[in-house]
Write a structure and sequence with these properties.
- With about 375 residues, the protein is mainly beta.
- The protein has two domains: about 160 residues, Sandwich (Jelly Rolls), CATH 2.60.120.10; about 200 residues, Jelly Rolls (Sandwich), CATH 2.60.120.
- Strands 2, 13, 14, 16, 17, 18, 20, 23 and 25 form a nine-stranded mixed beta sheet that branches.
- A hairpin with a 6-residue loop joins strand 21 and strand 22.
Length: about 375
Amino acid sequence: MAKPAFKPQRTMWSKKYTYDYWMESTRVPVHTGFFIDDLRTVKLGWWEERQCQSAFIQLMGSEGVSSSRVTEIAAGETTRPLKFSLDEIVYVVSGRGLTTIWYDNGSAKKSFEWQQHSMFLIPHGCHHQFSNMQGDKPVRLFHYSYLPLGLSAVPDPDFFFNNPRATPDDLASQEGFYSEAKMVHSPEMDEALGLRVYWYGNFFPDMKAWDKLDANVRRGAGGKSVFIQFPNSEVSAHMSVFTAQTYKKAHRHGPGRAIIIPAGEGYSIMWEEGKEKIVVPWHECSLFVPPNRWFHQHFNAGASTARYLALHPPMQFHGHAEKVEDRAKDQIEYPDEDSFIRKKFAEELAKRGVQSLMPADAYSNRNFEWSKAMGKQ
């Protein structure tokens, strides 16, 4: 079958971007809305050019900023070689397999294995293939990149896929390129957000089990986090972990942040200031994207620790206030939250036969110290 024609129709002020026309040209399903219930079961379609089952996911809040896609690899199969000009995060939704990468200059191929809930970066400009090491069931991968922004700047897909331009062999100069990530202490980290360290690396073996966490007291719920920077890239991520039957403070930021659930059961509430609230239920392998400058709040309604992994858009879209005093406008403290929030939480816990573990003082004391409260439990 011939490759579909790609002829974007550009008009002034249109909110349909080159990336949208390109997605349509692939004839692959595009899922929209506020959330995906389960990436393991979301409907896919055949992508002739890539010879695999796939689907694009363009949730409200990601349009024109970040690209999300699911690929399914049949049992025992390997994808076609692909060279992509942008950095791409890959999260393993299900299964186990192998990634092989190489550069144009004839350097040796390098391979690494992964399993469900692994996360890794495919560096820009390298060739790569994914192999399903299971002989009895398919693998599913979630892909995240800044391709919508790239295609808006250079509206030519061939510039980004299999571009013949030679790329320097970054792998040859980096021993242990996909070895375990390393912790970095940085004086430049944002003390106002309580950040002191981050993890630097290309491969994270299991985000469901990752336990190298640092306290993140500002968001409440006694939460802990890991902040991630990928080598030679502006791509970053973080994961937050918080206790059963508690919830985080409402906050807001810029668009394009894809949030995946590695473990736990609960829901999030998202709303544009002054407008209707939207409830997003989640469990393992759910996905959602908080729209630009919408408040959102995460609730652990299950009986065990929950965690959410956020893949970040470019720093230009983070949407954080530059001044500490202005950040107060981007977070709602527990004493100031809408009465609906606490009422809804009680209702959700009652459905499960459990009660809130939120300390009463958190609702009245603005200087409440979560670390002390959680130590008493």
